[in-house]
Design goal:
single chain; alpha+beta; Bactericidal permeability-increasing protein, domain 1; 8-stranded antiparallel beta sheet; 8 strands; about 30% helix; disordered N terminus
Length: about 280
């Protein structure tokens, strides 16, 4: 019997695999992308009924609590809530009285989001945007930093490990959404998110400031930041705000493309109904 060359066998396997994918593709397209039945932990509300804001606030809080516990279907689609892996942050603050700073944050993780509290969740009937009031009792951001510039009266240049701990982070979040439809389901597509923040306390540690060449100055600088945290926070407010916005956008954008908006708001119009009425 003539032996088939190994390369021919390999080619045959590749061709067979291609036919399986093409002809039986439905077996490969059943990976989870969104819920087609309402999960038991999603509380439905009606926007055109009284007490909607109270119902919506409870509904989103229940969702956050469930996300903290873990939702198996969303594994690999929505990032873990705690710790939450943050995309790299590249930040430039123009020359102001408080700071003139370039910062690049990488390998960043946020912990404490599992305790996030929804104080109020309002949804606009006009455009289905959100106004959400949030409290995070303690948020810790940790990762690698690069700083170059000035904060207050200090010229800073360094690179290394850092953490920022924030107590009582109060957030007013304004979110723009566009209603979209998939397979007859209405979804929120978050197009923009802006946050205003206030805090109760701030603790920071930046290792290897000034190139790590003078540990005494590095220590006294970090101590000064923590002693005068209100002034330091005001200088870093734009950077911290941008980081909070990035965290919330990445989390909520993915969640609300996986769970239909119509599961949360029973009487939400379809995109066709809503946008055609505005023409």
């Amino acid at each position: 019997m003539q032996q088939v060359p190994r390369s021919t066998n390999l080619m045959g396997h590749c061709i067979l695999a291609l036919f399986v994918i093409v002809l039986g593709g439905e077996n490969y397209s059943n990976a989870f992308d969104y819920f087609r039945e309402k999960p038991s932990y999603v509380k439905s509300c009606k926007i055109y009924e009284p007490e909607f804001t109270k119902c919506s606030t409870e509904s989103i809080q229940i969702l956050i609590t469930q996300l903290a516990k873990g939702i198996p279907e969303l594994e690999g689609i929505v990032r873990r809530l705690d710790p939450f892996i943050v995309d790299d942050i590249d930040f430039n603050q123009a020359n102001t009285e408080a700071a003139n700073l370039h910062a690049h944050l990488t390998n960043l993780t946020a912990t404490g989001l599992s305790k996030l509290q929804i104080k109020e969740s309002r949804v606009s009937k006009r455009d289905f945007g959100w106004l959400t009031t949030i409290l995070v009792p303690k948020l810790r951001l940790e990762g690698h930093y690069q700083l170059n510039g000035r904060v207050l009266v200090l010229t800073l240049q360094g690179e290394g490990h850092m953490f920022i701990e924030i107590d009582d982070l109060a957030i007013v979040m304004r979110t723009k959404t566009k209603l979209i439809e998939k397979d007859g389901f209405t979804f929120y597509n978050i197009t923009d998110l802006r946050a205003e923040i206030e805090i109760g306390n701030l603790r920071t540690q930046f290792d290897d400031l000034f190139g790590g060449n003078n540990k005494e100055i590095e220590k006294s600088t970090n101590e000064s930041f923590n002693k005068n945290w209100q002034e330091f926070f005001e200088a870093l407010r734009p950077l911290i705000t941008e980081t909070v916005e990035s965290i919330l956008f990445d989390l909520l954008h993915d969640v609300f493309l996986a769970i239909p908006a119509s599961f949360f708001v029973e009487d939400i119009p379809t995109p066709a109904q809503f946008y055609n009425n505005k023409v």
